[in-house]
Design a protein that fits this description.
Length: 330
């Protein structure tokens, strides 16, 4: 997923649709990239597993297969959902994580996401199988939903037959745990059904929808959207109002005059770069405090940059995209 355009497209989609849970496969994230860089001011708790040599081990017979970049899985849960999301502890050597949600009857719903590289074989299957086994045997978990890109392109889901031996093993695994596969149409631009939604409680998944190509972000996969029915009213936690600068009412002339009158050579004349940075930052902040008023914004979880002008542009982009999808004429 990772590039700045896709991140901004994701953020705009989240601002517009406010999903309670977001699941991403092939995040391409790494330790140096913070959660806040993906979900800037979006009020989400992030559970993620980035690619490493434990989750995606080297193939001794062909070590060049290992791709350090790529892979990774993520589950982001809105902080407005009061269901105590908790990461399930796991030592699985695969790109798979599970998050549980506690319902009012103290039973738990578990959401698992898995990204399986199609070239990985027995060892990877065993790790995924063991993880799903452990979740299924947990007594407190009443319902289990599994989503992800399993790369099972040879499977005929109507007849539940996999041409490839490894694909058949995954089918058997799903059947052993009574996991019904609910996606019925291609999820990839090449016409393959790669991204799955499986559950042992089909009534829990409602309004499943395959979004159109590039509707969420530019990708060769199609995004999937669905509702989770937990048969209870979810308590919502209202985030506190935020205080931000109102740049539309900034006195830009005064700001420019103040900066022009500043002796920047003196401000930045230090042998310590950190001192120079602090001096620069303090002058900018004091100038902004003086000439840019503050405003309180509502509790809706949107980043500071997503204002009414951006929202109008987002709506326009969606209209043009829909028009192109229908006509195929740019």
């Amino acid at each position: 997923m990772l590039n700045i355009t896709k991140v901004l497209e994701l953020q705009a989609f989240v601002c517009k649709n406010h999903p309670d849970i977001i699941v991403i496969n092939e995040t391409w994230l790494k330790k140096s990239i913070k959660d806040a860089e993906i979900f800037t001011n979006l009020n989400y708790r992030v559970f993620r597993l980035d690619r490493n040599q434990n989750t995606h081990p080297l193939d001794p017979s062909n070590p060049k297969k290992f791709k350090r970049n790529g892979g990774g899985v993520l589950v982001a849960v809105s902080n407005t959902v009061d269901m105590k999301p908790t990461l399930v502890k796991s030592n699985a050597r695969a790109e798979i994580i599970s998050v549980t949600f506690t319902m009012k009857n103290k039973k738990k719903l578990c959401l698992t996401t898995c990204y399986r590289v199609g070239t990985l074989q027995e060892e990877n299957f065993s790790e995924i199988s063991n993880h799903i086994d452990r979740v299924s045997k947990t007594k407190s978990i009443a319902r289990h939903i599994v989503v992800g890109d399993f790369n099972l392109d040879s499977v005929n889901w109507d007849s539940s037959v996999g041409i490839c031996r490894m694909h058949q093993k995954f089918l058997n695994l799903f059947n052993d745990h009574c996991l019904d596969q609910l996606v019925q149409q291609p999820t990839h631009c090449r016409g393959n059904l790669l991204d799955l939604v499986l559950t042992d409680a089909p009534h829990t998944v409602e309004n499943l929808e395959i979004l159109r190509h590039n509707e969420l972000i530019k990708s060769d996969h199609f995004a999937i959207r669905f509702n989770i029915n937990v048969n209870e009213v979810i308590k919502r936690v209202r985030p506190s109002p935020r205080r931000i600068r109102n740049y539309k009412k900034a006195d830009w002339q005064a700001i420019n005059e103040s900066f022009a009158a500043t002796n920047w050579k003196h401000v930045l004349d230090s042998s310590d770069i950190n001192v120079s940075w602090d001096n620069f930052k303090n002058i900018v902040n004091k100038t902004c405090d003086k000439h840019i008023p503050y405003i309180k914004i509502g509790t809706k979880a949107t980043p500071i940059w997503y204002d009414s002008d951006i929202d109008k542009l987002f709506r326009k982009k969606e209209r043009l995209r829909s028009k192109f999808q229908n006509s195929q004429n740019p």
